[in-house]
Amino acid sequence: MMTLHLKNTSLPIAEDTEDEVLEKHLVPAQIEFRRVTKMYGAVAAVQDLSLLVHRGEFLTILGPSGSGKTTALMLLAGFVAPTEGDILIGGNSVGSVPSYRRDQGIVFQSYALFPHLTVGRNLEFPLEMRGVKAAERASRVDRILERVHLKDFGGRMPSELSGGQQQRVALARALIADPPLLLLDEPLGALDRSLREQMQVEMKSLHKEFGITTICVTHDQEEALTLSDRIVVMREGQIEQTDTPEALYDRPATRFVANFMGEANILENPGFEVESDAAPPFGTVAMLRPERVCVAARAATKRADADQRQLVTGIVEDMIYAGPLRKYHVRAGNSVLIVREHVAAGQQIFRSGDEVRLDWLRSDVRFVTA
Amino acid sequence: MKMFQALGRMPIVLTAPALAVLLVVFGIPIILLFLTSLSAPAFSLANYEAFFGQPAKIRVLLQTVEISVVATAICLFIGYPTAYLIVAASKYLRMALIVLVIVPYLSSGLVQTYAWTVIIGDRGMINNLLLDHGIISSPLPLIYNRMAVYIGMVHIMLPMIILPLVSVMMGIDKSLMAAARSMGARPFAAFWRVFFPLSMPGVRSGSLLVFVICLGFYITPAALGGLGDAMLSTIMASQVQTYFDTGRVAAEAFVLLAVAIIVLSMLGLDLSVTQGRTAQRAGKSWVSWLPSSGGQKRYRSELIAPLRAKRWTAQLYRAAGDGCWSNVVGAMLLMVVMFYLLFPGLLVVVMSFSAGKFLTFPPLGLSLQWYRSFFGNPSWYAAAWTSIQIGAMVAILSTMVGTLAAYGLSRTFPRLRRILTMVILTPICFPVIVVGIATYLGLVKLGLLGSMTGVILAHTIGAIGYVVVIVSGTLANFDRRLEQAAKSLRASPWKAFMRVTLPLIRPGIVGGAVFAFLHSFDELVITSLVAGFSVRTLPLKMWEDIRHHTDPTIAAVSVLLMVLPVFCLIVLHVVGWRSGPSSQRALSDHRT
């Protein structure tokens, strides 16, 4: 049960205290993928996937389209059966259990609200299927509607709701029967940006309140970083890396993860020597996040911690203003580095053609497998 | 150019030619017919009293309703599971099954009725086989009874209910079923609570369509039924052909129409109750399912849609009735239904190559004698030539007038569009015998009864409806911004239409023309009333031959009639395929 068959795993417990480590190991994993493979014809949508999900955890499966993340979710939901391997929920194999006998709530990408039923009837549906009495159904519907701030919407049809409201109904419908497991398929994909941020906060608080084990599938790395306790990055049917959001962003294991989780400067033959505290492991390239790089005028005075920093000079090619951020493309050696700094008062602004000095902490340099 | 710009501002004017034809040939006559039924200047209910005073007439009316209801119920009972299985089948199998349903849908009802006389007639296939094997000593009374009427009618109507059902079922979001099951609904509960209510629009439109066609379609009951199985339409048609008390027939027509309207409005009421629920579907009238082309387009686009991550939904959908028993039962049902739909046609094909002197099955040998007889007999090939000429004229006229009307309708506001669409579609929504009698009256007034022009006009009023439905369907998918883009690039409205709109809706126009041609080519009920003695179309000639003597040449003619729709299907396919997929793919690429 405790064995992890993960490719490239930096342990999720790296930053936990000893007590927390102990606690996590005492609580049995709720879901386990054991070397699961799903073939569609000759194509493996998911290949040799092994994964442990802890009770109460918010786990996000992140990947570009075609990475097998949706298939992983559908395997868990019981809509498709694994070609090889097994899936265990609470220690029991569920390979042959049809979806309607599994106790789980799913929020579909399209929400899948029944267009012929009112919001209230939609919410009642899972309770009805579980044989809950009408009176209790009604009170539970009222309660959950209040919880998702849709108190007076029980009589409306789904088509009369806005996208955000539909999303909340879909979430309420998945949660109303108190399932131990919640599956989210690109839950915020159809919402616009401001609504998405609002819903992220909302979902986080719902997750905390219900304490429900949640598995979310998305291609939006920002959504994954905001919501998750742990993130699984998938690529071509296999797990690329599993880690906490911080670790995944700060210490990506591979070049793919580095690029997928935000912008990265990959220093591959940059035309200058990359200094680092430790010798680079074999087969890796140096990576530097754009916000770790500082830009200054060429003649600026040295910083106090200059001995821990690497300095290079370069020429600004481009400046992009993006509200709270300013982004420079700076040519240094034979590579172009992206530099990101927060806009602040009294800051010197560089224009294209300006000669600048870039510097960064040697400890901020990461090595990722190429 | 000025005029065209003015038309651009008043798009509704474009419906004028269609409405004019309709009004002259059908609209004014049916009003006259109504006045006649009320013994016009005097205004009395004498004609209706006469009708309801005759117990025999009332019995025929009840019988007509009964036969229509039973036939519709059987169609629904067989058609619903068939449509469900077709939708649940894998993509290529589904395409194949749909084509197998469309082929009998497009072949002439007359040919299919004829095929049944060959199968269940006293000297037909079944009786011959049984007699030859000594199982029976005298022919079983399979034909000329109510059973035979149902067998023949259901056979013709089944595709008309399957196609709208398939179309609606394909539109049901498959993730809804997945959602239901994830919430603990067993397969049957998921079907009953989610899938079935969502398929109701198809059930409603399909059964209405079948019911109204049954009310007015007298060919099959007349050919396969006994004397006791007469429909009101049979009696009306025979009256028009022999003596003609206009007032009486008019009253009968309006009684039949009243039955149709009562049933329509009953289900129409139902529509308004559930309007909120099926908001987007309620707006569509049931006739919009009439020709299968709108659906066809969807099937095509499904076929060409690149394989996407949606695969799992298809899988789970099929698993709706998991367990191998239900699969076996489903496969058997599909096979039986397909056999029922296709066997009569195939049988006629085999018989047409028979070397025997009579229509017997199995044929005694192979020969082309009946095809020779067809091409050697002037009365046959002249009739075919007449039909082709009429069909071509109808196709040209109705396509021009109908496309203009559809374009005008698409550019006007929704309420007016709905009303005018209903008006234009009346000739194909009313029981056909009522339309026939009204048209008869109209052509009498125009002095065109028994002339080619008269028959062309009579066919055109129905054909316009088909063209409008099909072209409107294509226009609904047409992105109006493309035309605006063209205008922003300095194209005049006329140029924008010719260079952008027209090429993009061409598949719809060709489809409309093909349907118009087929409609005219197969038309028998109205033609038999208005053709008089000088115009002999192929279906008319066949109908007379079927009734009077069974010249096996009919088998050869039937095959030619069946080859035609298949040929048209191929034409449609070629036209639609070339412009459909490429533009759709371009759009979907754009979106992703």
Would you write up a description of this structure?
The complex is a heterodimer of chains A (370) and B (592). In chain A, 25% of the residues lie in helices and 31% in strands. Chain A is built from nine helices and 18 strands. In chain A, strands 6-7-8-3-9-10 form a six-stranded mixed β-sheet, with helices on both faces. Chain A has a five-stranded antiparallel β-sheet with strand order 13-17-14-15-16, with no helix packed on it. With 592 residues, chain B is mostly helical. Chain B has helices at residues 2-9, 16-37, 46-53, 55-88, 91-106, 109-120, 125-132, 146-170, 174-182, 187-216, 219-224, 232-241, 246-273, 279-282, 293-304, 311-318, 324-352, 369-376, 378-410, 414-429, 432-446, 452-477, 480-488, 493-522, 525-530, 538-548, 553-591. The A-B interface holds A 40, 65-66, 70-71, 74, 77, 79-80, 98-106, 108-110, 112, 114-117, 125-126, 129-130, 157, 159, 173, 177, 183 and B 173, 175-176, 178-187, 189-190, 193-194, 197-198, 274, 276-280, 309, 311-313, 315-316, 322.
Short overview:
Chain A is built from nine helices and 18 strands.
The pair of chains with the biggest contact is: A-B, 35 and 32 residues
Main sheet specs of chain A = 6 strands, mixed
Q: What's the average pLDDT of chain B? A: 79
How many domains make up the 3D coordinates of chain A? 2
For this structure, the CATH topology of the largest domain in chain B is MetI-like fold
Name given to the CATH homologous superfamily of the largest domain in chain B: MetI-like
Gross geometry of chain B: globular
Q: How does the major sheet of chain B shape up?
A: none
Task: Please supply descriptive tags for the structure shown above.
heterodimer, A: 370 residues, alpha+beta, Rossmann fold, OB fold (Dihydrolipoamide Acetyltransferase, E2P), 6-stranded mixed β-sheet, 5-stranded antiparallel β-sheet, 18 strands, disordered N terminus, B: 592 residues, mainly alpha, MetI-like fold, 2 domains, 27 helices, globular, disordered C terminus
